[in-house]
Amino acid sequence: KKIGYNPVAVAFVPISGWHGDNMLEPSTKMPWFKGWAVERKEGKADGKCLIEALDAILPPARPTDKALRLPLQDVYKIGGIGTVPVGRMETGILKPGTVVVFAPANITTEVKSVEMHHEALQEAVPGDNVGFNVKNVSVKELRRGYVAGDSKNNPPKGAADFTAQVIVLNHPGQISNGYTPVLDCHTAHIACKFAEIKEKVDRRSGKSTEENPKSI
Question: Where do the domains of the chain lie, and which CATH numbers do they carry?
Answer without folding.
Answer: 7-56 (no CATH), 69-150 (2.40.30.10), 160-215 (2.40.30.10)
